[in-house]
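2024-03-11 09:14:02 DEBUG pipeline.ingest accepted 1 chain
2024-03-11 09:14:02 DEBUG pipeline.ingest length=307
2024-03-11 09:14:03 DEBUG pipeline.predict start
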Amino acid sequence: MRVVEKINKVLERLMNENKDLYIVGEDILDPYGGAFKVTKGLSTKFKCRVLTTPISEASIIGFSTGLALSQKKVIAEIMFGDFLTLTLDQIINHISKFIWVYNNVKIPLIIRAPMGGGRGYGSTHSQSLEKHFCGVSGVKVVAINQYTNFEKIYEVALELKQPTIIIENKILYGKQVKEMGGSKNNPDIILVTYGGSVEVCMKSANALFEKEEIITEIYPVENLNPFDSSNLIKLTTKCKKFLFVEEANAGWGFNDMCKSSIAGIDGIKFDEINGPFHPIPSSKKWEINLMPNENRITDKLKELFNR
């Protein structure tokens, strides 16, 4: 089953099980079913609870927050993650603070956001902006990958009853859902990443093992905010070499959180790969070369292994 189909099935099940659950967003009604078809078929099955909106991301989140404050459960779709910038005021200055302002009020709100590059959509539809929402108190940020337990992600988010942003890298939608293999006993390197970079890291690690017999363990992170440094610290007991990979540009992001988590531990050696520090180009070939790709990751793993 493809990731897009899996998410669709999870949303359908949640709608069946929660009669007070609403889905809100632009162009999500049938027959279109959303820009990436995640909501396809749902408005036909749940006519009064799948709500289409005007082209106003701030209004989508404002309206969804109002529903959530009235104790309705809400899943809001932002068509492209890049457009989350239009929701900053609602998220940072309002919903992240309501639990404090209104005496522990519950806000069962999930914001889904297709994010990232790799599909040739150009500079305003291919960014990885999740780091701008990480560190905001009261807002949880989760990034899915092909190995994600999608049912658990959504169930936990709804039960948490606090705003949760789910980052869905766009290249994942057409990929097959997979099961993650077990951890390796004595890896040469541990590669820590998240989202759409998990698959390319997995391919690089497998190819490198076949050619060079270098053992790389992939550690995919799903919870970006709050970030749990203790998990990375535990990994340092089995390996001292780490490669951190993120699609976003360098600075104030995922790789920096990873590096700070293990800084100061004796014997640690690490390196990192980031996206470019400039807008994503429209040329898909150029875009792929600039993003974390199999060649870049393999070369960096070899270099780190030989240190």
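2024-03-11 09:14:41 DEBUG pipeline.report The first helix runs from residue 3 to 17.
2024-03-11 09:14:41 DEBUG pipeline.predict end
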